[in-house]
Amino acid sequence: MKSDKKMMEKDVHEAVVEGFEFVEAPRVSPEGDVWFSDLTGGGVYRKRIGEAVETMLPGRLWVGGIVFDRSGKVLCSGKGGIVALDPGTGAVKTVLDTLEDKPIVAVNDMEGDGRGGFFAGTIDFDAILARGETPQPGQFFHMSAEGKITILRRDVFATNGIALSPCGRWLYHSETSKGIWRYPVGSDGLPGDGTLLAPLEDSDGLALDADGCLWVACWASGTLVRLSPDGEQLSEQSYGFPHLVSLAFDCVDPRRLYVSTGGNADAPAKGGVIAINLDVEGLCGAPTSLDFLGGVSLTATRLRMTRRSLEAAGLSPRASATRPKRPSGGSYRSVDRRGGVRN
């Protein structure tokens, strides 16, 4: 495992976008574009290298999760559930708006499961943001590539970051107000009973690196925390923002971490995305392949969305045409859901 002291010496950050209210769901596309949302200000946005920020889904509120589908569409959570956006036409299709025959108030974070489906969690933003009341418990659930819904928990205060371990045998789940849960993943890809790995009450978004360590955005303290696979805190860093909200590794340059920031009443318009260069490679979230969206069929290896896995699926990241060249920082990694990291 890399020395955290050495890694933190390289934590010089740069502003990618700024001037928003409370930015969530940073994601880097196979082309190297940075996608994000403004949770409270509304909208889903895309930032291409050297170009102005584009509004991709205007006005959509409470988007806490963005996942790329192999069909080319982009899944966006938010008020009323989950929709699929066609970036080329702007067309929007409903993916999920009810659970157990009840309308969804909002879906917050989402993450691909490496098998074509995804994990996600509902949240009562009507109570939290609109009425200022104690929210009703949310549901943590899984949707398969075929559209089957499995409710995993019904007692979640606020689902935030979700990530799989490099070996695919563990699922990590940030529940704001409690901390980071760890669940064993069965042969069917679904998690078993979880244990509270790290009691971080203000844990928000999270991502994993190739060492299996967790990078956690802590929204109240405005700090970025790195935890060992067993939950031991290895480092803590702040960057001068009131809130750090969510994060994602770059799937083109895996040593580049994007972190979203948020403002508040005392420091408005502090929402944005910053980029941090690290001495460790990170894991990029898996794409979905939802059948009803026409996604590309997944192979039995269940590849993660990195350069090598995209090329294996016949999807070129076209990085050379869209991004300035950066040091690669070593080989890219993909995850076999049967276990093990392949280089």
Summary of the model, kept short:
This protein is mainly beta. The chain is built from 4 helices and 29 strands. The strands form 8 sheets. It has a 5-stranded antiparallel sheet, with no helix packed on it. A 4-stranded antiparallel sheet has the order 1-27-26-25, with no helix packed on it. Strands 2-3-4-5 form a 4-stranded antiparallel sheet, with no helix packed on it.
Please characterize this protein's 3D structure.
With about 350 residues, this protein is mainly beta. Helix content is about 5%, strand content about 40%. The protein has helices at about 5-10, 125-130, 305-310, 320; strands at about 15-20, 25-30, 35-40, 45, 55, 65-70, 75, 80, 80-85, 90-95, 100, 100-105, 105-110, 120, 140-145, 150-155, 160-165, 170-175, 180-185, 195-200, 205-210, 215-220, 225, 235-240, 245-250, 255-260, 270-275, 335, 340. Strands 8-13-14-15-16 form a five-stranded antiparallel β-sheet, with no helix packed on it. A four-stranded antiparallel β-sheet has the order 1-27-26-25, with no helix packed on it. A four-stranded antiparallel β-sheet has the order 2-3-4-5, with no helix packed on it. The longest helix has 7 residues, at about 125-130.
Sequence stretches where pLDDT stays below 50 over 5 or more residues: 297-343
Q: Reading side by side through the largest sheet, how are the strands ordered?
A: 8-13-14-15-16
Helical segment count = 4
Largest sheet: 5 strands, antiparallel
Mean pLDDT: 86
What would you report as the Rg, rounded to the nearest angstrom?
A: 18 Å
Strand content: 35-45%
Q: Helicity level, as a percent range?
A: under 10%
